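re: ur question from earlier - yeah i can do the single chain one, its not a big deal. heres the input i used so u can compare w yours
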Amino acid sequence: MPSLELFDETLDINSTENYKLTVQLGDDDLTLSILDTIRNKFVLIRSYEAEPGTRFDKAKIEEVIIRDDFLVRRFKKVYILIPSPKSTLVPAPLYDDSRRNEYFRFNFASEPGYVILENRINEPDAYLIFSAPESRIELVRTFWPDIGPLHHLKPLLQSIAGSKRSQYGNYIHVHLENEFFNMIIYDQNSLRFCNTFNYQSLSDIQYYVFYVIKRLNISQDDIIHFSGKTQKYDRMIHEFSKFTRNIRYAEPSGNFTFSYVFSEMLQHRYYNLFTVINCE
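and the output i got, formated as tokens:
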């Protein structure tokens, strides 16, 4: 059974060829959303989560996909997102695909059972190289053979690059997954900082965020935008507010709207799931 399910009354399982499907395949969850392209409106979000203390293995993910009434149908377009803490950016003018593994190993050790993939990023003009479990990629190739998986940073960078154009000074964004978070900072002209940190507690997150802000000589009065799995620390805003007054949850935006049923949820929680639509 899904741990979360919201859908608009206009959702029609026989109209999926007019819909865009986004699926995020994480270690401990599988979440999907559906955009009705005729109305440019999100009409469904559904999430399956692993039992506390467990992870989704290949067999469990395959079971969820087969049993779900939408995932096995044909769609106008499909996006597959894979969160991964191990990624690196290589400027496009310097990129050589034959050296992809070498670029990755410059920052990370090779791991058995993982494959190294790449995504093209428009802003910054770069290639995003990342590792993903081979078993998960095999599932993608089985159920969506024509779809190239996207790292979760691709829609995040794309969306933030658009948001920062309306900002003066620095745009600071913190995106949380269950065991790691990404911190991205743009100034008015370009990407200034992008890194991933592992964490175990809220104090870890605070330490890394304010350490980076201090090292980059950024004012603590600048707004910090949060997205992702922030519900793990429902006191996050309160605790961060002890050090800065300007904390906000990031609102997903683009050429789309949301069904009224989505008002029942925290949209920043699924920021990447919605904004990946902008990656076209």
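The chain has a mean pLDDT of 91. not sure if urs matches, ping me
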